[in-house]
Amino acid sequence: MARYIGPVCKLCRREGEKLFLKGERCFTPKCSFDKRSFAPGQHGRTGQFSRGRESDFARQLRAKQKARRVYGVLERQFRRYYGKALRSTGLTGLILLQFLETRLDNVVYRLGYAQSRSQARMLVSHGHFYVNGRRTDVPSFLVSPGDQITVRPGSLQGSFFKELGDRAGNTNVPLWLERNLNTLSGSMVRKPERSEIDGNLNEQLIVEYYSR
After folding, report:
1. Which of 8, 96, 104, 192 is geometrically suited to a Cys-Cys bond with 21, CB 3.0 to 4.6 A?
2. Predicted confidence (pLDDT) per residue in 160-176, tens digit
3. How many CA atoms lie within 13 A of 108 on its CB side?
């Protein structure tokens, strides 16, 4: 299972905005982006964010890279999602974002059972969640409407999950999901609509990038 293991704060600085990759830390003064909001590298202060108008290719690339980094997906897998969306019926960009949103690690994050997508990915890969009663340790598993996500019974005895209900209660759940804090479970009601997906992502530019 390939994943990015470098410093994630540099990714936020490279995109020029907070991607909230570290959960609660991103809302504290410790956030590296608040201290150094310029791009990483020796030319960061005088590079990307101080130049004039970006080229079309640069804007397309940045849109693609931002989506990849928000969901923690590497290039090869992201390209496969795009190819699958391209072969599907409907708006390619919207279907691509729906694939990313319905990944199991993202659903666990959206349910409030993890502070960040990276933490959700770790919890899923360690086998702490069931999907429809079956242990599922693949973060990229695509959840479908009607699927039930529950915490593995053996994991409920851990200190993390004993306190999870109180922490998760402070987060809002999107309308396309349902959550039961008493049983630490949730379900997918329907596919997310575009208005329920991160508005800072520009799927049209992503489609243009891969259509070159």
Report:
1. 8
2. 998 898 888 888 999 99
3. 33
Is pTM beyond 0.70? Reply is yes
Instruction: Provide the 10 A C-beta neighbour count for residue 107.
Output: 26
What domains are there in the chain, each with its CATH number?
Answer: 1-52 (1.10.1050.10), 56-102+197-212 (1.10.1050.10), 105-188 (3.10.290.10)
Largest CA distance in the chain: 56
Helix, strand, coil share of the chain (percent; to 5): 45, 10, 45
Q: Tokens 């079956």 sit at which residue?
A: 134
- Among 116, 106, 108, which Cα is nearest to 24's? 116
CA atoms within 13 A on the CB side of 158: 10
